Amino acid sequence: MTADQSTDTPSQATGKRPSLPPVLTKAPPAALVIFGASGDLAARKILPALARLADRGVLDDGFTMIGVARTEWSDEEFRTHVAESTPDGGPKWKALVGRFKYVAGEYDHPDTFSQLKDHLDEADRMDGTAGNRLYYLATIPSVFGLVAQALADHACIHPAEGGSFVRVGVEKPY
Asked: How much of the chain exceeds pLDDT 70, in percent?
């Protein structure tokens, strides 16, 4: 083995392991849109995981979330739901939750996506999300296609100029 080849064993010269990159790095500002935000998956899994990331300093101060679901809630009722789902959330998480928004509506209705676009534009202006979008489909699989098509029809999946990103993810046990 040559001197420039690395191994997982301690260096003979220093007796130390090579340093590893940090596992968690700070995420860029982004708007996370959770379809199915009033459901069990969001409450038990997604929201607590986000709270832990926020409290570890991984979520940027520009992170915001917009919940979308059929449940008729106001922004404040959604924030209360988020707080009740994350009782162990610390001060960083609680500061973020105060900005979260909610859209009540059908997953393929134009009014739902008009409200969503308004909230996303506001997030760009107020929170500095810069067009960065993460769409998370925590819904039943039969709705995936409806949401994806509505996102396309309402121009929600095209990155803005300047290097922003858009991602769509689904989570379902199969």
From this structure: 84
According to the model, what pLDDT value does residue 11 have?
45
Asked if residue 4 lies in contact with residue 40, where contact means CB atoms within 8 angstroms, the answer is no
CA pair distance 72, 38, nearest whole angstrom: 10
Conformational region of residue 36, where left means phi above 0, alpha means psi within -120 to 50, and beta covers everything else: left
Neighbouring C-alpha atoms within 13 Å toward the C-beta of 53: 19
pLDDT 10s digits, 13-37: 555 555 545 567 888 999 999 999 9
- How far is 160 from 157, CA to CA, in rounded Å? 9
How many Å apart are CA 81 and CA 141, to the nearest integer? 24
Q: Give CA angle at 62 (56, 22), nearest 5°.
A: 35
Q: What is the pLDDT of residues 84-96, one digit of tens each?
A: 999 999 999 999 9
The whole-model pTM stands at 0.84
Give the largest Cα separation in the chain, rounded.
66
Contact 65, 33 (CB under 8 A): yes
Q: What is the 3-state secondary structure (H, E, C) of 29-83?
A: CCEEEEECCCCHHHHHHHHHHHHHHHHCCCCCCCCEEEEEECCCCCHHHHHHHHH
